[in-house]
Amino acid sequence: MNELPRPDMMFGLKVVLAATDFSARSDRAVRRAAALARQSGARLVIAHVVDDDQPEHIVAVEVELAESALADAIREHTYLAGLQCTPLVLLGTPFDAIVRAAHQQGADLCVVGSHRRAFLRDIFAGTTAERVIRNSTVPVLMANLDPALPYAKSLAPVDLTDCSAQALETARQLGLLQRTKLIVMHVYDAAAAGMLNYAGVDKTSLDDYLVDTRTDAVRDLVRFLEPLRLDDVDYSTVVKEGAGPATDIIEAATELRPDLVVIGTHARRGAVRLLLSSVTEEVLRRLQRDILVVPVRDAGS
After folding, report:
1. What is the C-alpha to C-alpha distance for residues 1 and 282, in angstroms, rounded to an integer?
2. Domains located in the chain, CATH noted
3. What keywords is this UniProt entry annotated with (predicted)?
4. What is the dihedral of CA 192, 193, 194, 197, to 10 degrees?
5. 3-state SS class at 81
6. Does residue 74 register a pLDDT over 90?
7. C-beta separation of 259 from 145 below 8 A
8. φ, ψ for residue 210, nearest 5 deg
9. Whole-model pTM?
């Protein structure tokens, strides 16, 4: 893995976009986005999408109501007081309009709430939040927790690839890790243990294999972290044996109870991204913690 360049100072958040449909779920997203914007001095864009696939007069009424609701929220909610807020009413399909707005506004981070599922539709397409994450080139934070408190503990599962490295580096650059106790977790697979046991290898040899495998995993994690130079982050490491990445992440999060989980996902284009399940999507659907998803493009993509 090539050493990632380290800036002289962390980039921090300059523009945060929060998507709202005025529900309690999206209110968590707006509150979390407001807290992050206040902490970093960022501009906060609060975006609402009106479905334009309906009669023109209905669209006009919904746009007017949305503009009024956003203006009232910015004026009346104390958690928005003193922030540089930009209300934004968009037309189109929610996930597509949010993705486009994040790009056009120059957002460093897009914050969305978890969304109630429509069973048959979500089997094939996913929730609006998941579809934003699938298509966004901007890091997306899914806000599941009560945003009243700042992040105190974060968890970063890593698989020792550039994707994991870039996810960690992006979270650091956005200033999301510096005030937390970060746990970097690497899960390794002692794949040959079952075969050795089945082949009747003696217990001493099997134990030696397990010890050597864990030692190698610890060494590999140290090598992985060296070029990241996380000297401005209070972090510790956890190395454990496992075989199912999503399940391992969820079990670790259940045990460690982080406020924030940081994961990278390979950014893909086209229909393959819509159909291909991933560890990230399973974690999003099952884990009730705040989750930062960093899209990482492979070299040459």
Report:
1. 27
2. 8-147 (3.40.50.620), 150-301 (3.40.50.620)
3. ATP-binding, Nucleotide-binding
4. 120
5. coil
6. yes
7. yes
8. -65, -40
9. 0.86
